[in-house]
Amino acid sequence: MATQSRRGGSGQPDRRSGSKAESSILTKITSSSIVSRGKQAASDAAFVSKKLLRSTGKAAWIAGTTFLILVVPLIIEMDREQQFNELELQQASLLGAPPSTPALK
What we know:
InterPro entries: Tom22, Tom22_pln. This protein is mainly alpha-helical.
């Protein structure tokens, strides 16, 4: 009786015969054409998304640097001109000149 309790007793099923059947089922499943097509589709999707992410990053870099080089100086210059026009109007009102509307250029 003592030797049977150490080995797990007679109530437990033998697992060695079931593991061969399970491994052969897993082998059949992993080697099936559906699984291989799924793996190929996942690989293709990963490749396309990686390329898309890389090209999107390049496009964002180009757009960002173009904005900094061309648009930001334009915005700064327009702001300076607006401040200059406001200063002229303020000085004209202090000197007593009649308020005039700025001419459109």
